[in-house]
Amino acid sequence: MMTAQILLLLVMPAIVLAQPRPPMRPISLEGCGRTKGCFAMPEGCHNGPRGHGDCDGIFTQEMEPGNHNNVRMELFGRKVAGWVAVGFNVNPHMPGTDVIACQSDEEGRVTVKNLHNFNYTNVMDDPNNIAPYLYDAEGVLHNGSIMCQFTRPLATADDKYDLKLDVPHHVLFAWNINGTAPAHGPLMHKHTSKPIIIPTLVTASEVFFNNVTEKMIDLTGCGKTKACSRAPQGCSSAEECYYVYTQEYNEESHSVTIESAAMVHGWLAMGYNSNYTMNGTDVIACQMTPFGDLVPVKKLHNVNHSNFIDSSHDSGIGLERAEGRYANERLYCRGTRSVRPIHGDEFSRDWGVKSYIILAANINATAPGDVALGHKHSYPPLILPNMYSAMDIFNLNGTKEGPPDYPLGYEPAPAKEEKTEQEEVESPLVIDLTGCGKTKGCSRAPAGCASAKECFYVFTQQGDEAAGTVRFEMAAFSEGWIAVGYNFNYSMNGNDVHACQLTPNKEQVIVKKTHNFNFTNVADSPDNIGLGLENVGGSYVDNKIYCSFTRTIKPITSDNTSRDLTVKAAIILAANFNGTAPANGPLMHKHNGYEPLGLPDVLNALDNTFNYNATEADAKRHQLTRTPGRSVV
Length: 633
Hints:
With about 625 residues, the protein is an all-beta fold. It has helices at about 1-10, 615-620, and strands spanning about 35-40, 55-65, 65-75, 85-90, 100-105, 110-120, 120-125, 135-140, 145-155, 170-175, 195, 210, 225-230, 245-250, 255-260, 265-275, 280-285, 295-305, 305-310, 320-325, 330-340, 355-360, 380-385, 395, 440-445, 455-465, 470-475, 480-485, 495-500, 510-515, 520-525, 535-540, 545-550, 570-575, 595-600, 610-615.
């Protein structure tokens, strides 16, 4: 019996008990600003016996010892039984943010997740893997507070959603006090309070300690090292003034940093123009989002009295270290750009040339980060009394008290005699017809009309083979929309359509990218009405719509409805007299029963030498014309 027992013990496999994971070490602020980068809130919070002390929120980053391709991160949120998250974005806003979140479930377990923001919606990077590319991730929920730690490579194989953390970026910190959710899936609830954005751009290897609120705008150099305008007289800080504007030139980089602040809850804008008018103004604006959480910095331009984002792909094109903030009932805005416009930027002015500086604001007009300003200024804009370049230094003060009727602090400078409000005349977007048949393709009516203002309608295209783009211009009498479509046959079904539509208030012309499914017009992208279009402009003057835009000759990767315009196609023009519609969405009404015009030849985007004319009678009878043209089915 004893022998059997001994044999049994000999053949049993060895059992190794798993070692319990050591408890998570408290997050320490020791080394912040020296060996690791840290954010802690509220201002002045400090470590306690267990690490967190009296801090309500903490984020730390530190390069992994012995492996500088990885970064170790820590998150802490006090009394956040839902989730705490950190985000990384090259722009200071939520859309496009690379997110890592620590979320508790109903059983009190904490899961570390890898996500991204699509506009303002949170989405899992990979529904089948909640934490791809995260290592040594752990989290705990204790007394209603979440603490978690994890390691992430500087660069992952997911270049679609994961930001390379060695690229300068903003860090966003957000939390929800009770948004528990299952382990698999996105964050179930929005942040409880507006996210906090670390105001300076950093990389994962940088050390910082953003525990003390810095002055957003420093006025000590006004009139000495930087140019300033402010009100009322004698105010000494952005927090004390009704409004502040500064510009500071950097000779080494030949760039200029502009700053502005005002007591508004909508948007704040700075414009530059060689004329004493809004039309043609080069604009930088900061606008609060509808959720009041972020303040994106936008680069825009004015056509007549409507503003447009310079680039539909990058609302902050040409700007560096751009940041916006809302605090103390004030909107703060800052951005740096080169004095001369970057290559390909046709809307920005050369700030080495003297311009009028125009300041404007709206007290409550919020809008998403990737669209133009949604509302006009609440009060007359302020135009500084003289013309200045980026290199000039000045120190202007408003009135002693600053009338409350003007949130910028004092009444605008008196208008120049040659540019009074009564004498200023809206002018249409300029369409140059001198190159028709030589450097650009054109179609117009009646025959011999010499300008878009004189013609019943105009359509031009100018392909640039080297740039891979084509520029389009259109004008026609309409109080609804005008459009051009491309198809491999003279049919509406399957048309690739670019349209310019008047908004219901007739104050703005929106350029839209749509397509026809059978005889129904559909927006290519409900989230981006101008998908693939750049340098858009539009105006509505004397019952005529004018517009222009640029697109790539070959469709962009994400666009599966646009045609390849290197291939010859039928070009079809159409219009609606009164089909106004909101900015977002397809064309709301069909053409008014008039037969669309099909140009007589199939053409591609590089055909820059056609020049078609129609008779005056046909143009009047059919709005655009039938002859010369082709029947459209």
